[in-house]
Amino acid sequence: MYLNKLKYSISAILFVAVILSIFSCDRDEKQNNLSTEISHIDRLIQRLNHANDSTVMVVAHRGDWRNFPENSIPAIQSCINMGVDMVEIDLEMTKDSIFVLMHDHTLDRTTTGEGFVADFTYDQIHSLQLRDGAGQSTEWKVPTLEDVLTLCRGRILIDLDKSDKFIDQIYPMLKESGCIDQIIIGSYRPYEEMKQVVGIYLDSIYFMPKIDEESVDISEFLDGYFRRLNAPVVSMNFSSDSSIVMKYVPKLYQTNKWIWTNAITDNKCAYHHDNRATYDTHGSYGWLVDNGFNMIQTDRPALLLKYLREKGLHD
Asked: What is the CATH number of the domain that holds 278?
């Protein structure tokens, strides 16, 4: 009798030990997965601070908008899934001071509504449906900046376009969200003007000076930022291969800056653009990489990633 009870006790103890072991393994696996996710964003942030000549960073313009509505949650999630480094999104503010993702000042093109974003409350805008790239109504809603920060935290870098005028208003939210180190904000305004507009916040964010052929004095513009600010990225638009902008690329490259260009339209990258890449990747993405551009904003993130991975320029 005693031996039987002892056997039962030992069996019970072993059973409990096995169950605890399973839960422990499951917990460790979850922790390892979280650790992997955290290390991924840490790696992206580290890369953002230290450009190098062995990789190219991919920026998805308004998310994966060819497959989902632009500036939408699924468009951003698709970029995260495919391994895009950064997603570019646009901000507008509603009548009741809620920041939403919207490129245009009006609702007409991208939603089922009409009128200026600033004339509607968030609840009114949230009642609308987003349209896809073909203009068809979808099931998706206009997301808030807060929604997107929650989605992107620990997963992907963010370019908050059209937000330089909102920095003082959105900075507390960016800081509180835990995403502040994942975000860059850019502007064509010179340093002194930006400093006057946003004050102390300019020194607390990753800032991207933007230059093009219309800049009055590119050297003075860049020097204004580099003497006062650690700007890891510079955005450059150029309409021809012989543009004056091109002479600054080697100089920026030597200072370990990320040199951003826009492959989204022909006039921003001298016809070395996304549509050309569908039949001539060497003459589009290849030309941009060969000429020193190591951060490319694209409307075709899957195609650009495929090209870079085949060349060993992206994970």
From this structure: 3.20.20.190
3-state secondary structure of 256: coil
Is 4 inside any structural domain?
Answer: no
pLDDT > 80? residue 1: no
The whole domain housing 229 covers 50-100+144-310
DSSP codes, 127-170? TS-BB-TTS-B-S--PPBHHHHHHHHTTT-EEEEET-GGGHHHH
DSSP string of 55-123, one letter each residue: --EEEEETSSTTTS-TTSHHHHHHHHHHT-SEEEEEEEE-TTS-EEE-SSSBSTTTBS--SBGGGS-HH
**Looking at the DSSP assignment, which residues form a beta bridge with residue 210?**
235
Give Dmax (Cα) for the chain.
Answer: 97
**Structural domain contains residue 159:** yes
Per the domain annotation, does 161 fall within a domain? yes
Residue 239: inside a domain: yes
pLDDT per residue as tens digits for the range 102-116:
999 999 999 999 999
